[in-house]
């Protein structure tokens, strides 16, 4: 079995591990920190074209199958095999200990090198706004954070939070984040004003439309298309089912709200409270149809935030992954809210920058209000 090398480049010290397979000596590891190589896994490994000199014979590491590694006489091979057999337990233990000692250092380093996922595009921003709770039972979690991006990452992952995060407020003056299990649409909550605050609400919980199949929809519609009230997901009356909230974590099977936990065609649905109708889809429109556009869509201010190919739009107030000139503060009348599709430069229809580093921008698929009028065609 040959495994690729390295696993963790440029971060380990030198050691030797010899393994045996079918009576043949296989060089698993012989590395030197000075030349920037790394520790190999404890399995027979191919090590590039490095040549190592040892005991008067040459080992051509990684140049072919194990039977071709030793290129001198049989006595030297037998002696080396005997020596390797005696040292194998000690060297194997050394290998394991090195991994245990070095992994706490190398793994955080490797993770730190990865580009963190930008999750702020999943939130609707309300500048100079905060939320205050009127219900004392509602919980809040606060912590010092450097940016709204860090707050968003923690909210999406629910890291260190005793509840499902639905919104947060970033205090720009104190560099502090306040996470909430509620949003501006929740009962027992009211909006407040403050120059130092910015409110960010998870779009999945507040939008009244769906993207694609609606698998991310977490709104509060609880009536089917024909007007039947939905059955609570935690209830087995009148219909027994296997869609329990505990079995579909992250799908927000709360109350009796319409959901699409398996991403099926037709969009969000629910079991109904009518014993004669087991389940039915809900009447939730596509975001591309919530607000139509006229002419080339320069006046469009709808909530579409995905391109026609399904790519997520980049926020207008961000410069990654694509730098651009359309800053909200520079063009306050262009509707550069969050990452919604807009047409600030007179293109044929609304568009947006994408989160795909290889695709700078794409058009968005938005419904036309009416056929092109004379005004749109530039005719008098």
Automatic annotation (TrEMBL):
Keywords: Disulfide bond, Kringle, Repeat, Signal. Residues 118-204 form the Apple domain. The keyword Repeat applies. Residues 208-287, 291-369 form the Kringle domain. One of its GO terms (biological process) is negative regulation of apoptotic process. Disulfide bonds join 292-369, 313-352, 341-364. The keyword Repeat applies. One of its GO terms (molecular function) is signaling receptor binding. One of its GO terms (cellular component) is extracellular space. Transmembrane segments: none annotated. InterPro entries: Kringle (IPR000001), Kringle-like (IPR013806), Kringle_CS (IPR018056), Kringle_sf (IPR038178), Pan_app (IPR003609), Serine_protease_kringle (IPR050759). Signal peptide: none annotated. This is Hepatocyte growth factor isoform X4. The gene is Hgf.
């Amino acid at each position: 079995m040959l495994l690729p090398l390295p696993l963790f480049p440029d971060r380990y010290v030198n050691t030797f591990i010899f393994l045996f397979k079918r009576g043949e000596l296989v060089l698993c590891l012989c590395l030197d920190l000075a030349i920037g190589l790394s520790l190999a896994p404890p399995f027979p490994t191919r090590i590039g074209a490095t040549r190592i000199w040892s005991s008067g014979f040459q080992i051509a590491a990684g140049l072919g199958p194990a039977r071709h590694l030793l290129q001198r006489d049989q006595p030297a091979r037998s002696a080396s095999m005997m020596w390797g057999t005696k040292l194998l337990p000690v060297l194997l233990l050394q290998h394991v200990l090195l991994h245990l000692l070095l992994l706490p250092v190398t793994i955080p380093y490797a993770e730190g090198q990865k580009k963190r996922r930008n999750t702020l595009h999943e939130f609707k921003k309300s500048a100079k706004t905060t939320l205050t709770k009127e219900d004392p039972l509602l919980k809040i979690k606060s912590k010092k954070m450097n940016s709204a991006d860090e707050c968003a990452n923690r909210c999406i992952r629910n890291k260190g939070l005793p509840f499902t995060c639905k919104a947060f407020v970033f205090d720009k003056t104190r560099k502090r984040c306040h996470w909430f299990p509620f949003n501006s649409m929740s009962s027992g909550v009211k909006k407040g004003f403050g120059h130092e605050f910015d409110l960010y609400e998870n779009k999945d919980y507040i939008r009244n439309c769906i993207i694609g199949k609606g698998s991310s929809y977490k709104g509060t519609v609880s009536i089917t298309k024909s007007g039947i009230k939905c059955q609570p997901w935690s209830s087995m009356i009148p219909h027994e089912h296997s869609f329990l909230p505990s079995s579909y974590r992250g799908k927000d099977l709360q109350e009796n709200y319409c959901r699409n936990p398996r991403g099926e065609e037709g969009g969000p649905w629910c079991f109904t409270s009518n014993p004669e109708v087991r389940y039915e889809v809900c009447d939730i429109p596509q975001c591309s149809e919530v607000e139509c556009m006229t002419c080339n869509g320069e006046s469009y201010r709808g909530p579409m935030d995905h391109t026609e190919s399904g790519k997520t739009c980049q926020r207008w107030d961000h410069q990654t992954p694509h730098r651009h000139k359309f800053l909200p503060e520079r063009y306050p009348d262009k509707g550069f809210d969050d990452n919604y599709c807009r047409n600030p430069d007179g293109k044929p229809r609304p568009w947006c920058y994408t989160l795909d580093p290889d695709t700078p921008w794409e058009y968005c698929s938005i419904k036309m209000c009416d056929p092109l009028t004379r005004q749109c065609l530039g005719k008098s």
